[in-house]
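A protein record in our archive is deliberately plain, so that people and models can read it alike. The record that follows is passed on verbatim for readers who wish to inspect the format.
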Amino acid sequence: MRGKMYIGDLHIHSRYSRATSRDCTPEYLDLWARKKGIHIVGTGDFTHPAWRDELAEKLEPAEDGLYVLKKEYRLEGAPPAADPRFVVTGEISSIYKKGDRVRKVHSLLILPGLEAARAMAGRLELIGNIHSDGRPILGISCRDLLEIMLETSPDGIYVPAHIWTPHFSMFGAFSGFDTVEECFEDLTPHIHALETGLSSDPDMNRCWSLLDGLTMVSSSDAHSGENLAREATLFSGSFSYDGMFAALKGENADYAGTLEFFPDEGKYHLDGHRACNVMLEPLECMKLNNICPVCGKPLTVGVLHRVLELADRTAPPEPGRGFRSLIPLAEILGELLHCGPKTRKPQLKLAELTLRFGSEVDVLMETPLSELSAYWPELGEALRRMRAGEVIRRGGYDGEYGEIRLFEPGEMEPSLLERVPRAR
């Protein structure tokens, strides 16, 4: 794959993390990666001993620092595609006190192999329990966690995860920091990339000049196979761990941007209080001193609000550069079919589309609109609007996902269901 574009979804979870699907196994992650069109998928949860043992049993080395599922474990049910590769990754939840405040920060660690994972897990086991959850909670500062990674695996990649999420991130409104340096101190030069999270996109991040020298990474943070690739990072050039590492460090031109949620759909994009059904834009929240007008309790300050607090630009220098915003195909089909995206009709149609046109990412990004319209005119128009950014937005807030729609009420009459193409 040298010289071609490839898609990496590096931040995911296994079934050993809380609130994850029991099907988050190597077999099903490989299957879903093929369905979605991902070339490199993170293993997630490398600290968990049982998960590492399962990875060692079911994966075998491929390109430098990458692994592939052994043939005997491969499942059928995806369009023909090259075998996805796995890269060793994991998320750590750090909860510690610094500057008279309790800090709660999640970090994504990417390592060059399972041996490095065992060594890193051995160090972390001396600090706290790594057996009960695939995303362990440890009383260690981000700076010290980075130091341990550099000592154990100098070629490891440390990425502050979903950096704006209110409760568990580096810049989060409730427990975060105001600069990268405040978090990592003398080791700040070893931070090369930041994860945007579902509720922000690169344009929002580029409104803060402090982040100009850092690479924007996007990942699904998936807790089930269906959610793989809802966000991802694009690479080109050397298909290897070293190639990916160099791209994230900005040492070559192989970083090619990101695939993003429309950030309004993220669970923490706007401010609000879900218990009181209160959703507010940042300026409205500021006028209320961040207090809920219904119950008088503090509002959950969202990502857009926090970005505005720290930003020193009113707009990014090059709007829209380096990323594409997508809507999961099941959500588009659910809108067209007037039912929930996880119900039977959209799922059957999704399977049919991917077998006919290729992976989900192919359908969303690459399949010519003329072909899609010839197959199903409404689908072609839906994807035209999505690709052009012509979407209708309702922002998420306080843990409630937002909504991105492509058609106004009444545009998609139920009678149009008669024109839905039938599987042949």
